[in-house]
Amino acid sequence: MSKKTILALIALILVVGVMAAVFVLTRPDTQKGAKEIVVVVNHADGSSVPFVYHTDEEYLGALLLSEKLIEGYEGQFGFVIEKVDGEAATWDNGVWWAFYLNEVKPENLAVVAVSEQVIKDGDLFIFNYEKF
Amino acid sequence: MKNSKVGITVREIALFGVLGALTFAAKLVMGWLPNIEPASLMVMLFAVTFGKKCIYPIAVYIAMEFLVYGFGIWNVYYLYVWAILALASYLLRQQRSPLSWALLSGGFGLMFGALCAIADVFIGGVGYAASKWVTGIPFDLLHCGGNFVIALLLFKPLRELMEKLYQRI
C-alpha cells in the first residue's frame, strides 16, 4: 500500500466524519405538543385551498397521511406524493406536486421529502401543481 | 481494426450498447438498496478499458435512465456527474491497486450530493443547494460505503476480464 493510498484513505475517513458531524449538528429539532400549521394546495385550475391543522405530529408526512390530504408511496428517498387533495400529478404525465416552504419560489422548494419534513408551530407549507 | 481515438467500429457499437444496457439493468436489480449501485464501478471500468470511447457506453446508460424514469431535475445532474467520474478514472488509469479504486469510487459516492449541488445553485440559489446537500448526507454516506465495497471486491477482476475481452474484438 503506497503512502498516497494511505493518505487518501485517511482523507476519506476524515471527510466521512466531518460530513456525519455536519448532518447531526444541523438537523432541526422536532417539536412535540399542540402546533398550528397551514397547508395550502394550489390546484391545476388555479384554485387555492387552505387547510389548517392542530397537531402533535413531528413530521408533516405522518400528519397529511392521517388527514388523507396526500396519497403516494414510500420511495428510496422518502414519501413520493402522487395525489394532493384528490388531484393526481405523477411525474410520468409531465406534472408534479412541488412542495414549498412559506412561499412559492425556487429557493423555497423543500429539500426533504414530506415524510422527513419537521413541523413547527406556525409553519406554512404549499403544494403547487406544476409542469416541468 | 480499431479506428481513430473516438471513431468506433461496428463491433464496438454493439459492445458499448450492450455494456450501457447491462449497467442500467444491474442498477435496476439493485434498486431496492438505497444508494447502492453498480454504475460507478461500471463507469470507472469503461474509462480505464476504453479510454475516451467510454463516452459511448456511458451515454447509452444515461439515455436508458432518461427514457425509463422520465425527465426531472436529476437529468441535469446526470449530464455531468458521470463525466467527472469517468475523467478522474481515466487520469488514474495506471493505478492497479484495488484499494485505490475503492477510494475513488467511495469518494465519488461521498461527493455525489455535493456534485449535484452545483446544479442546484442555479435552480434555487446557494442556500437551497446547501440545505439540500446537507439533508442528503446520510444517502451520500451509504453511497460511499456501497461504492467502496463493490469496487474493492470487483474492480480488479472485472478490469482484467474487460481488458482481455476488448483486445479480442
Fold and architecture overview:
The complex is a heterodimer of chains A (132) and B (169). With 132 residues, chain A is α+β, with helices and mostly antiparallel strands. Chain A has helices at residues 3-26, 60-66, and strands at 35-42, 48-55, 70-75, 78-84, 87-88, 95-101, 124-131. Chain B is mainly alpha-helical and 169 residues long. Chain B has helices at 10-29, 39-50, 55-69, 73-91, 98-135, 137-168. Chain B is globular, with a radius of gyration of 16 Å. The model of chain B has no long low-confidence stretch (mean pLDDT 90). The A-B interface holds A 1-2, 5, 8-9, 12, 15-16, 19-20, 22-23, 26, 76-77, 91-92, 96, 106-109, 111-112, 116, 132 and B 31, 34-35, 70-72, 97, 99-100, 103, 106-107, 110, 123-125, 127-128, 131-132, 134-141, 144.
Descriptive key words:
A: 132 residues; alpha+beta; four-stranded mixed β-sheet; three-stranded antiparallel β-sheet; 23% helix; globular; B: 169 residues; mainly alpha
Q: Quick gist of this model?
A:
Chain A has 132 residues and is α+β, with helices and mostly antiparallel strands. Chain A contains two helices and seven strands.
